[in-house]
Structure formats: structure tokens, C-alpha cells
Specification:
7 helices, 34% helix, Rossmann fold
Amino acid sequence: MTKNYGLTIVKDFPVKGVNFIDINGLLNDPACFQAAIEKLCELAQQTIPADILKKSAIITPQARGFLFGAPVAYKLGLPLVCVRKKGKIPNKPYSFHITNEYDSYDMEIDSEILSHHSHYIYIDDIFATGQTLAGISEALTKKNKKILLALHITAVSALKGIRNNTPALKGLNCQEVI
């Protein structure tokens, strides 16, 4: 793998003042992508006891989280629970609101699927302000569900202070591959 794992920074995207981490280079390099998936699996297996891991599910937000959550769920033999933007879940959606660094929106989880699992491993691409993770964690907590581990491909170090001051992230085990 290359040192930057194919990640590039795009300044002022999607809005002025936001530096977007583009994962397309990583996805376009099979060795980098495979290594990232292997590392996500390894982190989950090393962090969560095997008996709890096999009873857990992967939870991942659209859209870029799906790219990493699905292969990890497949490799670990775990269920995959997708978090979608409002209007995309046809069966009994459980809705909640998220505000991040450049947007605000409602998200949904299929409440029937959600009811089958009590422990989750959250997987997404970029750990920026952590507001998506915080919103999903709060939504799960309201349903007596818990995120055991939050995995990301990489984190924006300049936003660590915001993450550290987000109550819903306190005590949550968060790790990055890069």
C-alpha cells in the first residue's frame, strides 16, 4: 500500500471551508482496499470478545460507509444493518435527526431489523466531527442498543477537539485504520 493509502484531500468541498477526504484512490487500488477491509476485521476481532462478536451486527451509514461495512460483515459472517436517509426504508422506519459540519438531515433504520440485535460495530469511512456516529449512537441508546466499537478508515485530526466535546462519543471505543 502507498503511504497515503490512495486518500486525497479536496479543499472547499462540498462547501467552502470543508476539506473533503476522497476515498476513490483507496477504492481504485485493490491491494489498498483489501488491506483496509482486513484491518477493519482485525480491529473488530481484537477488540470484541469472540462470544460477543458473533452475536453482534455491523451498522453503517449511507453511502460511503456501505462500501466498508458490507465487506466486513461478509468476512466476519455478521448481519449488516444499513442506516439510510429519510424515505429510503420501506418497513417500519425508526427515524432520528443528525446535524454534521455541513448538513442536517433525518436518517432511518429498519426498526424490525434493529430489534434483532443489541450490540453493534459501527463502520464508516471518515471520522470528522463525529456527528453521524453520535446521532446513530444516541438513536440506538434510545432503543436499548449499544455500539461496542466504532471503526473508520481515517480521522480528521483537526476535528478531534469537536469529537472530544461531543457527549454521545464519550467512552465510545473509536479506532481508525489509517
